[in-house]
Amino acid sequence: MLKPDPFLISLVCTVILATLLPCHGAAVPIFQDLAIAVIAVMFFMQGARLSREAVVGGIVNWRLHLAILLCTFALFPLLGLGLHALFPHMLHPAVWLGILFLCCLPSTVQSSIAFTSIARGNVPAAVCAATTSNILGIFITPLLTGLVLERHGAASGHGGVVAIMLQLLLPFVLGQVLQPWLGKWAHRNKRLLSMTDRGSILIVVYTAFSEAVVQGLWHQMPLSQIGLIMLADSVLLALVLLITTLGSRVLGFPREDEIAIVFCGSKKTLASGVPMANVLFPAATVGLVVLPLMIFHQIQLFVCAVLARRYAHQAGRKADSASSRARGASSGI
After folding, report:
1. Which controlled-vocabulary keywords does the entry list (predicted)?
2. pLDDT at 322 over 80
3. Across all residues in the chain, what is the average pLDDT?
4. pLDDT at 157
């Protein structure tokens, strides 16, 4: 049985809280400033936790990392634009912004590595690829967002890059500078920092959805739209999983590398996506924009957990078969 993710439950509760008790009036600028501050601290600690070896490592297996980066920053946006071109009126315009923004985000780190490990794939490559994707995403995501959403009146790529650099990249770089002194402490307190990271995201989500609720979010978002968002997210994930699996085999990647490509190339980060949306989009639309990402995050966790177990089961059967053949050969000597 798959256990419910406590963080996803917390996100749902946060959305409910923002719906019933949204912040308004004088509390709004306080929460907006708090959201900026906690996200800056989160990226600072990410920089402090990340070893220099992880930042510069993984260059040797360049074909694998190039494949993952192309899936993350080229395949996803092209599929998102294709879905929008085919079904432009299926979703609320701000929700389509969210789908297209989702397609521009970097991969996750923790879940990509965890699922690659469960599936018995190339874990070192997954570590390097997911880390590289997140670092490059700080630059690439706002540029891609500006290009992809240009016709929708979203923030320009240049302005987005400046805001990302000031609010996210600068704290990350400062964390990296202080990593030799803070790194060991950060690793010893990994669980505590993980809780503070998630708390930071919850504050941003509460602030964003409070603004959206005040602007009439649930009057614009009937239950049928939630179902259509789930459908669009599911189709997007299914297409990427299919393309990454078949593409890896056609290009001749070994099974362990295929697993890393499938799990790193199909993920989208909620941890970095929510802060980036908070920087790139007007406050009134952030709640609608991050809704597809929150739903996609839950779907990718469930689907990839099932897929990882399937890969692991196949690997176990192959190992058992190879062991049986080895015993048979030794007994025949």
Report:
1. Membrane, Transmembrane, Transmembrane helix
2. no
3. 80
4. 44
Give residues with Cβ within 8 angstroms of 216, minimum separation 6: none
Categorize the per-residue pLDDT at 108 as very low, low, confident or very high, splitting at 50, 70 and 90: confident
Whether 332 maps to a domain, the answer reads: no
Q: What is the CATH number of the domain that holds 276?
A: 1.20.1530.20
Question: 302: number of CA atoms within 13 Å, CB side?
Answer: 15
What pLDDT does 51 receive?
A: 63
* Structural domain total, the chain: 1
Tell me if 233 sits within 8 A of 241, measured CB to CB: no
pLDDT tens by residue, 118-148: 888 887 778 778 878 887 888 888 888 888 8
Residue 250's CB is within 10 A of a number of other CB atoms, namely 8
Residues contacting 30, CB < 8 A, separation 6+: 23
104 touches 276 (CB < 8 A): no
Sign, CA torsion 176/179/182/188: positive
User: Residue type at 236?
Assistant: L
Establish if 194 belongs to a structural domain.
yes
Do 304 and 266 form a contact (C-beta atoms < 8 A)? Answer: yes
Q: Give the Cα separation of 153 and 271 in Å (integer).
A: 25
Residue 205 has pLDDT above 60, yes or no: yes
Domain assignment present for 227: yes
